[in-house]
Amino acid sequence: MLNFTLKQLRYVEATDRLGSIANAAAELNISQSSITAAINALESQMGYDLFVRTPAKGIQTTPAGAETLKIIRAFIHHSRQFESEIKSVGGDTIGSVRIACYATAAPSFLPTILKRFTQTHPGISLKLLEGNMEDMSKFLENGQADLAFTYDIVAENRFDFAPLFAAPPHALLSKDDPLAKKGSVSFLDLAERSMIMLDLPRTRDFFTSMFEKHGQTPKIVHSTRSAEMTRALVAGGYGYSILNILPHDYRADDDRFVAIQIRDEAIIPIFGIATHARTRQPKMVQSFINQCTSLAKEGAFDNIVLNANHHLLAQ
Question: 186-196 as b/e, with b when 16 or more CB fall inside 10 Å?
Fold first, then answer.
């Protein structure tokens, strides 16, 4: 019969996630010897090694260890849910919600959400994790996040998904570009110009495929992993870009750049909240999701997409 504590499991999980005993000790603010003791105790009880220790290279998970860590992470996730449910029985509003955010979109929508939620739940702590779309999946899978703000193409069949709004792609052009005076543009119009690509996992392939569907190939002259740099290069006249969500401070009379509708048919991704599939969420997490969907119904996110008529939850 295995005899271990939740604390030991958390030590082991942190070691795997962070790649070394030293990093796990630093995150958990405990001694390295405590981490080592937890690993040794668990390995001794199970009868096999979780990790391979390599001097100067940290640790690597063994095949059996990788399978075990999946089970450990699921157990830790459920233990957090259990703790949250127990607290909520007595009306306790002290707790936390761990939120993963697609970094390029977060500045446009997250402040509105956080303002509403902290007003209604002043005792709640919100932990934010930022990353690209691939990171969103990892944060959920390894138990670092309770929910992730991302696109439906990432959620697919792996996660449950609560839609917030449709985010049709738009062209971002310098104010000085002649196309900026048009009401809409085509992929043919854009293919003749220099493109600044937001080069993040899945993003590049997604935008390139839209051109290919219409028999065009984008002329990529600059690429960057920063949405802010993308907008700066567009404003400087170095080319156009394609994005789905408008900058948080964008105005129709913006003197830096202009967002133009793409009139050709294109895939319109849905932005929303991904959570662990077929898993009942703690009341606090569900309350957070409910407030987000309520804000969407109120039209709180209409100003961050180009076409408000694609608003999902108005009906």
Answer: ebebbeebebb
